[in-house]
Write a structure and sequence with these properties.
The protein has about 325 residues and is of the alpha/beta class. It folds into 2 domains: about 210 residues, Rossmann fold (3-Layer(aba) Sandwich); about 90 residues, Rossmann fold (3-Layer(aba) Sandwich), CATH 3.40.50. Helix content is about 45%, strand content about 15%. It contains 15 helices and 10 strands. Helix 8 packs across helix 9. The longest helix has 17 residues. The N and C termini lie far apart (about 50 Å).
């Protein structure tokens, strides 16, 4: 395996000065509803409002001074964009961010607020990659992939590492899956630090490529894209998929209606702000209660960068 236990431990020490050790919360009402004891790792309280700072910061700090001097660059709809913009500011270098032209304004404004240069493109993978490549060719900036990068995966693994250190002997861990950076990092931390803990992923039905990939044994494209979970629209990479294939217990899909009802539940009962992608694993657990009944489960709440204007649309 390309990422070792020691590399995760080293990454954690490397990024500690730049991140929060986020809180683990519980909620009796949700426990009763789930029929299980749940522990929520609140990355919505993280720097930049999402777990992505872990991977972005680890990748940036891993660069030599020679590689960092021309800046760092990426394509992202939001949270990874913020992570790279924040990391560049910490390193005293330039950030070049390519964002789809329909990215949530709250995320665009945050990226610009960290001092990054934002370039918009059409909302498809080809446009992202071609626009970014032109910027890299022009500037010599170092590309840090949003998820398909060992340095990023290793940084994301520190989230589950913290949770497992604070709440040992979990029966299950649940994380969302989009490109698979957080999920593959979570799987590696469970494997190294708590091998008895099974890891499940939650995925929107409207972006269900990972569950198809797991079934077919090769990276698939979702048959259609239609979900409010905008952070989970990307497909798996050749670095994330083998880890997921080897270690994940299963990938559980949920509808947008189930995501919205779970958002409402978290807002009303936990009194915290989370984004739609964030509650997908909880929605998956509540949909499949029989799998987790009577057990202890950790759930990674991945982020809280939500466009407040969407509330009326979701809860009307």
């Amino acid at each position: 395996m390309s990422i070792s236990k020691e590399q995760i431990e080293q990454a954690h020490e490397r990024i500690k000065p730049f991140i929060h050790k986020t809180a683990v919360l519980t909620c009796n009402t949700i426990n009763e509803l789930a029929g299980a004891e749940l522990f929520f790792k609140c990355e919505n309280f993280q720097k930049i409002g999402a777990f992505k700072i872990r991977g972005g910061m680890n990748a940036a700090l891993s660069l030599s001074k020679e590689k960092a001097v021309n800046g760092i660059a990426t394509h992202s709809s939001g949270n990874h964009a913020q992570a790279i913009a924040y990391a560049a500011r910490q390193l005293g270098t330039k950030a070049y961010i390519v964002m789809p032209n329909n990215s949530p304004s709250v995320k665009v404004n945050a990226v610009k607020g960290y001092g990054a240069e934002v370039t918009f493109c059409e909302n498809n993978q080809q446009a992202r990659e071609e626009t970014l490549q032109a910027i890299v060719d022009r500037t010599g900036a170092e590309f840090i992939h949003p998820y398909n990068d060992d340095r990023v995966i290793t940084g994301q693994a520190t989230c589950a590492k913290e949770l497992l250190e604070e709440i040992p002997s979990l029966d299950f861990l649940l994380a969302p899956v989009g490109g698979g950076g957080l999920l593959s990092g979570t799987l590696l931390s469970a494997h190294y630090f708590s091998p008895e803990t099974k890891v499940y992923a939650g995925e929107p039905e409207g972006a269900a490529d990972a569950v198809l990939s797991l079934k077919s044994g090769k990276i698939e494209t979702a048959p259609y894209i239609k979900t409010i979970a905008d952070g989970l629209l990307t497909k798996l990479g050749d670095k994330t998929f083998p880890i997921i294939q080897q270690y994940v217990a299963d990938i559980l899909t949920v509808s947008d209606e189930e995501i919205i009802s779970t958002l409402r539940l978290v807002y009303e009962r936990m009194k915290i702000i989370v984004e739609p992608s964030c509650v997908v694993p909880l929605a998956a657990l509540l949909k499949n209660k029989e799998l987790f009944a009577g057990k202890r489960a950790g759930i990674i709440l991945s982020g809280g960068n939500v466009d407040l204007k969407k509330f009326c649309e979701w809860f009307s």
